[in-house]
Amino acid sequence: MTHAMRLSFYVSKLGKNVLWAQCALGSIWALAQTTPVSSAAAPENAQEAALEAYGVVALLAQSDWVAKLTLLILLVMSVGSWFVIATKLMAQTKHLAMAKEAKERFWVANSVQDGLQTLSEKSPFRFLVEVGLQANAPQKGILAPVERDVWLSMALQRGMSQIQTELQNGLSWLATVGSTAPFVGLFGTVWGIYNALMKIGLTGQASIDKVAGPVGESLIMTAIGLAVAVPAVLGYNWLVRRNKLIVDQVNAFGSDLHSVLNAK
Fold this sequence. Notes:
The chain has helices spanning 2-53, 56-62, 65-105, 112-117, 124-136, 148-167, 171-203, 208-262.
């Protein structure tokens, strides 16, 4: 009986020790699970803080009025370029539709006057027909001795040149932005690096963490300049090609109209 009591006492004590060991192992395992998360979260938080300290927002907050003015100029260039691209694209689409309209309606009319009524009010082809009819009429005064064929050819040529000039409106802005925006961004970069080096020289801290931030922010200016210039150049080339298609159709229409009016 005494041995049985001793055995039960040892068994209960051993059970308590096993329970304590299980609790200790559980605590160690939980600590092992939470420690990597904390150590991984610390660099992640540090990285987020670094990203907030450097970037476009930090560039705007820490830059002087020269850098802000440079960014404003680039912003105006970008907005103006996209405005020109959008408006010219819509205008060219309308011109192409008017060219199709003139081809389908004007040449099947019974007379030039009837064909004129089938064209839209703002159609460049209607403008050419009006110019041709006016030049084909008998001239008075100082223009009376001029031959009708010569005067008609000159009038239609001036009309086609005027249409071509109107089609080119706005393209000079895209050409200017495409050629100057990278240099504007480069100026912002040079100015930002100059200010960054001045601050580093005044503070006396030339470590990589002190240099990389300001210099990297300055290099953003060059990237912004390229981001403004590339769409302007691509848009310019695309719109010029579409303009050529419209001009070719206008010239062909003018030549055919000259033949019809000259035959009368």
